[in-house]
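An instance as discussed:

___
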Amino acid sequence: MSRIGKLPIQLPKGVDVTVDGRTLKVRGPKGELTRTFHPAVEIAREDGSVVVKRKDDSQTSRAIHGLSRTLLANMVTGVTQGYSKDLEISGTGYRAQLAGKKLTLALGYSHPIEIDPPAGISFATETPQKIRVSGIDKEVVGEVAAKIRGLRVPDPYKAKGVKYAGEVIRRKAGKAGKVGAKGAA
């Protein structure tokens, strides 16, 4: 039995879970999330908590069991607390700014990059070098943050680009000067 999958998910006050076959709807103070789960698992409500059970002991069911429970727990956390990812920009002239809800990035290209937030996602900039991506769906927040980071991945020589807050960039040594080159005397 999956150690993660067998744990019940406690529902905080203000969170309502509706089970309709394989589709689950979680409603809370920050919003509403809906997901359809794999047929190998069953989701049931039990006094103040939600339990994920698998139908059989096949390898697929065992693999999906813990995943489904974690996805459901992420939905409950999302509608109560929300998720956010922080990004840092480093490099001369590299900056971010908000124009309404749209994020405009200057990342060393000949043109600024404008990003419209998808539904349920919001951007915030504390400084021109710090971006926060927030929302209730953990997967979408991570995906949008990864797309922003992918616009200018930090290079290993000068570490210029967009990185996650707290991410450590492994630096490489630059070119070494030649000693005793031909013609130098």
